[in-house]
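Example S7 (structure tokens).
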């Protein structure tokens, strides 16, 4: 049976101050008072107090404008060319790390950081040099700068394409060696030739546009690109095999992933037109370099122009680099003045934002929640974490939390309510009080899974106007015992429910009892026999030691039957006061919960 709150809900600005005699009985208290780890100030990622400047390690050359931006917020340590060991040593003193493609941010780096590293900024696009799984497990956000070097990379791709077709690099080397070989360096024309763009993302699209300007017939292969975007610039999307079979030139623009690793291999070179020419400004690892050497030797591939290599720098005696039909540059795709300035600003803004606790628009390993959604969800985010915190503190020691159900009641259509952030914050609330793990939006799902906690979500679709995103959030923990038996609902789970009222999160239900107490400070829940004087009695015990009662509410089944009193307190009551509350004769059980 659901119990309803009485009209005794009141907000109290000052402490109650009646005096009560001391007692020494301690048994109820030892069950009720919980000691919790220190609370962390990380609403979503990490927020630094105004006087505590974070430290950012910049491990590769970054444009001045980006450095200036960083220096306005953080201590900046520019240390280039660190060995892996030096990086691991330094990282434990850093809150953020900024790299380009030349630094391996390995699992060891995250492990060596001792939990301090909160953000890795990749000043560029490709994040294949960052161990994303390790970053996520350590709750470290990874952000990149995905747009500022697009044009630079595309221009370099076109530069390599044209230079290769006309033997510019080889002819240059020959003339500098005192030769004049006009017959040897006869090139091929681009106009009317078919170019296959492999990976029709930002760079691929810009390469396609430019190649069309050179009169080429451009096709593209990208399993994830929308056909209408390609059609809009006169590019036909084709299958992988068709691209290989019809192209005179192939330009690679896909990321290095387990699927694309060595995607150009013996088998696929065999599918190409004899005499094909290949450009790679994506990642060396998408080509099986040994297979390419063979294809060059056999004439399947007439020429290749490469900006990127499986190992950078490649070995000096690399047959591929030394091959006379290969033109090489040392990973220069993003290296223009303009791109480096842009990338530096883009990454500095992302890193500073993340250190301030904002959600980054360029997050690579966390859900991106638009700023306007975040603003609207803010009070619900606080509510979610506090409900998680309350629910887990109600679990009796020894009962492992395995199954948590979260219910969101809203008049919004499910598509219109992004609950990933709320789920992450409930997870944070559930896990942090019972462990030393730091939980944030990045590692919440991973941490829950690792601890064997299954969090299921359910929506209740309410009638009415969906002005506010949520009516209430309910957190239920199944198959556990509670140290406060009244928190167990009729269906047998620990249940807490909360709402946002005037922007402030409130606890509105515990078990089957309706209460109403704002979720600020801490909370004492008491089950008692409903009778006059209870509020005064408990309030007086707290008032005696100057503990400010901020909110009180009583939910009862019926007059003079069982009731649950919820008391919000600003300060932590002493053990002695809690013990005295437990000894009030009408109090059947009570629990003190830290928010
Ligand atoms: N050489 C350099 O200095 C630079 C290299 N790059 C590299 O270029 C690549 C592309 O960069 P953006 O265009 O900015 O990235 P993007 O993410 O905008 O585009 C990548 C595209 O590849 C597609 N793709 C993924 N798997 C694929 C597959 N198996 N087959 C075909 N397409 C696939 C994706 O759907 C996406 O459209 C990245 O690897 C990046 O690291 C980017 C900038 C500079
Ligand atoms: O942005 C990318 O993916 C690049 O490859 C550019 O690399 P870089 O920052 O020049 O080391």
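Recovered sequence:
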């Amino acid at each position: 049976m659901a119990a309803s709150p009485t009209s005794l809900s009141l907000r109290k600005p000052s402490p109650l101050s009646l005096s009560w005699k001391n007692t020494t009985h301690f048994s109820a208290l030892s069950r009720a008072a919980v000691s919790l780890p220190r609370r962390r100030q990380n609403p979503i990622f990490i927020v630094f107090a105004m006087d505590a400047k974070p430290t950012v390690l910049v491990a590769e050359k970054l444009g001045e404008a980006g450095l200036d931006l960083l220096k306005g917020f953080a201590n900046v340590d520019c240390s280039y060319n660190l060995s892996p060991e030096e990086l691991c040593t330094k990282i434990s003193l850093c809150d953020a790390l900024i790299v380009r493609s030349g630094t391996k941010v390995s699992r060891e780096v995250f492990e060596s950081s001792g939990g301090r590293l909160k953000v890795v900024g990749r000043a560029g696009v490709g994040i294949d040099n960052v161990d994303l799984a390790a970053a996520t497990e350590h709750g470290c956000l990874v952000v990149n700068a995905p747009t500022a070097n697009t044009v630079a990379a595309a221009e370099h791709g076109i530069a390599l394409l044209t230079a290769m077709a006309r033997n510019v690099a080889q002819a240059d080397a020959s003339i500098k060696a005192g030769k004049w070989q006009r017959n040897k360096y006869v090139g091929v024309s681009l106009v009317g030739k078919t170019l296959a763009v492999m990976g029709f993302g930002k760079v691929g699209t810009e390469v396609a546009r430019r190649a069309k300007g050179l009169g080429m017939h451009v096709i593209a292969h990208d399993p994830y690109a929308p056909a209408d975007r390609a059609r809009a610039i006169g590019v036909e999307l084709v299958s992988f095999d068709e691209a290989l079979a019809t192209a005179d030139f192939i330009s690679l623009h896909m990321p290095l992933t387990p699927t694309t690793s060595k995607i150009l291999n013996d088998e696929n070179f065999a599918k190409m037109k004899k005499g094909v020419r290949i450009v790679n400004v994506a990642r060396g690892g998408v080509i099986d370099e040994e297979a390419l050497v063979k294809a060059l030797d056999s004439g399947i591939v007439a020429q290749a122009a490469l900006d990127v290599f499986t190992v950078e720098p490649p070995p000096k005696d690399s047959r591929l680099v030394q091959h006379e039909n290969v033109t090489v540059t040392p990973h220069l795709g993003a290296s223009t003045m303009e791109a480096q300035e842009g990338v530096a600003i883009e990454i500095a803004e992302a890193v500073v934002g993340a250190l301030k606790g904002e959600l980054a628009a360029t997050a690579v390993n966390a859900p991106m929640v638009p700023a306007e959604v975040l603003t609207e969800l803010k009070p619900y985010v606080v509510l979610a974490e506090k409900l998680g915190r309350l629910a887990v503190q109600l679990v009796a020691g020894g009962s492992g939390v395995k199954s948590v159900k979260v219910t969101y009641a809203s008049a919004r259509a499910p598509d219109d309510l992004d609950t990933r952030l709320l789920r992450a914050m409930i997870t944070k609330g559930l896990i942090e009080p019972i462990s030393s793990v730091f939980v944030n939006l990045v590692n919440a799902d991973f941490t829950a899974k690792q601890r064997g906690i299954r969090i299921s979500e359910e929506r209740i679709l309410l009638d009415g106007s969906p002005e506010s995103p949520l009516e209430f959030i309910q957190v239920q923990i199944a198959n556990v015992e509670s140290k406060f038996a009244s928190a167990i609902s009729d269906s047998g789970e620990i249940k807490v429910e909360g709402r946002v009222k005037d922007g402030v999160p409130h606890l509105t239900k515990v078990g089957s009892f309706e209460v109403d107490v704002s979720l600020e400070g801490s909370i004492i829940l008491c089950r008692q026999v409903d009778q006059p004087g209870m509020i005064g009695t408990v309030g007086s015990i707290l008032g005696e030691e100057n503990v400010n009662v901020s909110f009180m509410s009583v939910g009862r089944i019926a007059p003079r039957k069982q009731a649950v009193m919820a008391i919000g307190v600003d300060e932590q009551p002493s053990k002695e006061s809690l013990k005295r509350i437990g000894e009030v004769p009408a109090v059947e059980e009570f629990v003190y919960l830290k928010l």
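Notes on this example. The CA atoms of residues 399 and 518 lie 28 Å apart.
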